[in-house]
């Protein structure tokens, strides 16, 4: 307190009014920083109805009424309620034995509808497309009204069989050994059904330094229709596994693949390439806007590591290395005829134009976070007298966070 009083007295001893104002501005720099950080955090954590009120994404006020009404509901929404927005919707009869499994036929129907674009969800918005000599990658996203952002991707690997790709993604031991999935720190099998191939596994995944690691309790199972594999992995509830503060458990997780042979782009007409259609979403316990930014920035870096890992796995299999227990369980599949699902599926859902929809022009209010970020950088840079390098770092960081919307 005494030091603060001395600084204030020194300011008022300034000979000119301008000098006193400058000193006061420098003294208030921490308050400037705190205010800007508070505004940014507040905007990132804003409820959805706030974006609707100011016309976010160009929606009219009438379209915002359902979101506003939803915002008046109690704030304490359980993970089970959140998961209801993405639960499989099925009308087919499931036997009691099947229903007791961690992953059942209803989950297969849900994944099949996603693949066939008959799930009735929002249209997919194209995000990214990359092509390399040995594989191609495309990604889409969509934002359901009552759940985390959802990702859809298509990866086509040349000279790869569906069976090997299936084993590759199921092999947790190789994920850690090869480090192609460098986020996976630990894995263990909690349950397994050797009749259906259903497994319950526990994962611990590494998160950036500012987040604690995450724990996942995952149920998974594979169905096979010819050479096409429907691989479902999703979070399941296991109260018998105690919770801890660290790692933090993720209660809503869905990551499933359709692995199928496709024609090679070599032009020989052979089905020697393999497509992996991935559908993924999870609630990691961080603001969804920040999660979308992280996915957009880090997606391609993660995808590029998959292909070298797959090639190393192919070499290991060709050399006769034994299958891990997880990969061996991938061979225990439930056979079905995908054509029969068309007859059983009585949900009328027209396919969405996933591949053609593009980002819509954003309303001017969508630039508010960028304005706040840049303004904060200006205020912060102006209060530091550390030369051009410090100011360049501050402005560069601000542009890094404010710029992804232009890409």
From TrEMBL:
Sequence intervals crossing the membrane: 21-45
Superkingdom classification of source: Eukaryota
CC annotations in GO: cytoplasm; nucleus
Gene3D superfamilies reported for this sequence: 3.30.530.20
Keywords tagged on the record: Membrane, Transmembrane, Transmembrane helix
Chief location: nucleus
Gene Ontology MF: a single term: lipid binding
Boundaries of every START domain copy: 112-315
Name this protein carries in UniProt: START domain-containing protein
